[in-house]
Amino acid sequence: MTDDYCDGEDINLRGYASSAAAYAVLAGAVVTAARRGGRRLPERIHWGDLALLGVATHKASRMLSKERVTSFLRAPFTRYQGPAGSAEVREEPRGSGLRRTVGELLTCPFCVGAWAAGGFVAALVLAPRPTRVAASVLTVLTASDWLQLVWTITDEKARE
User: Fold this and answer.
1) What is the pLDDT of residues 2-46, one digit of tens each?
2) What's the confidence (pLDDT) of residue 104?
3) What gap in Å lies between CA 144 and CA 34, rounded to an integer?
4) DSSP track, 132-152
5) Strand 89-93 versus strand 78-83 pairing type
6) Measuring CA to CA, which residue among 53, 75, 79 is closest to residue 64?
7) SS3 for 38?
8) Interacting residues of 11 by C-beta distance below 8 A, sequence separation 6+
9) In angstroms, rounded to a whole number, what is the distance separating the alpha carbons of residues 84 and 72?
């Protein structure tokens, strides 16, 4: 089917197509749930919510795809390769079929980010208050992470 596309390279096009289809089905389910619940999709999302959800999406995607403490979620689909910086690990997808597709998704913060963003926006439509609270926690955590890194760099320079 795709040999002429990837010239024999092992590219998981079927898995990618399956995950894109699942994403579309879930997006449709959110719209249906909103309509059945009497909610209308917003004409636009306020810039403050976009900024809040953007930072929260970044943090959620890093947590899910890279952090050591969430490796138990990825372990059935990935193989540990080694440390990758501050509290992060390097992993590679394993297996074939659905297992490999999920492993590829979970090791890519950009890929997880698309799902996290969709989830946050869907949650904002369906339950705005709790979504803003959860996103605020992740946004504050992101600020804390940056301050921890700045502190570490400053402390190391002071010791030189």
Assistant:
1) 567 777 677 888 899 999 999 999 999 999 999 999 988 899 999
2) 95
3) 34
4) HHHHHHHHHHHHHHHHHHHHH
5) antiparallel
6) 75
7) coil
8) 2, 5
9) 16
- Number of CB atoms found within 10 A of residue 144's CB: 11
Q: Which two tokens stand for residue 144?
A: 């804390």
Specify the length of the chain in residues. 160
Q: Are 90 and 84 in contact (CB under 8 A)?
A: yes
Closest CA to 22 of 33, 11, 12, 14: 14
Report the distance separating Cα 50 and Cα 55, nearest Å. Answer: 9
Domain boundaries, the chain: 3-159
Q: What global pTM score does this model have?
A: 0.87
